[in-house]
């Protein structure tokens, strides 16, 4: 791999390292995490310094200007900024996709996975109407805009997975959560009221791609069994039903 490519990727990953430090503060009990305006300004500065588009970031800030549960919504703004950064990584990886040598170092991959972990927990799992594992906290009262946020974040993560390298980093660790998000957006009664039919069909088509083309059969079956629930963690009837239906189809493959 040429030194120019190395330098280019280092420049792309550098802001993610900064962002991970900011995210660490955001999810901590540190008093700095409560300084919302300062945290937002720092993220804007990171995005602007690397000439990244901040339109979606700014729009998300406006969407969160409502009185209900601002503490819940403000974290969604940070997720949007993180996704903007990862979208930039995808753009650069697509530009060097024909390079036969590894594009990312181990430490660079770790920085990406760390950021995706925050995005998945905050942009997906936090909005679920069910628990993905026994240790997942039970849902609290949450604003309706969480469905819009789940919609947006799921689309963005699916888009990241269209790149082979990013998909290799994301799916082994977050397949369970991504299947859960796509099932909820496709089938849950609440999402059927909040999300247009054409959008639900889009998520259903992406679920098909995820479980038939991007993932191994045994991994899909295992995660569907987890989502289906157990005696210790019951799942809603709609989730049990559709996990069962997909499992039956998996057995016929």
UniProtKB/TrEMBL annotation:
Pfam families attached to this UniProt entry: TANGO6_N
Every TANGO6 N-terminal domain range: 102-250
Superkingdom field: Eukaryota
Keywords assigned by UniProt, alphabetized: Coiled coil
Coiled coil spans: 33-60
Full protein name: TANGO6 N-terminal domain-containing protein
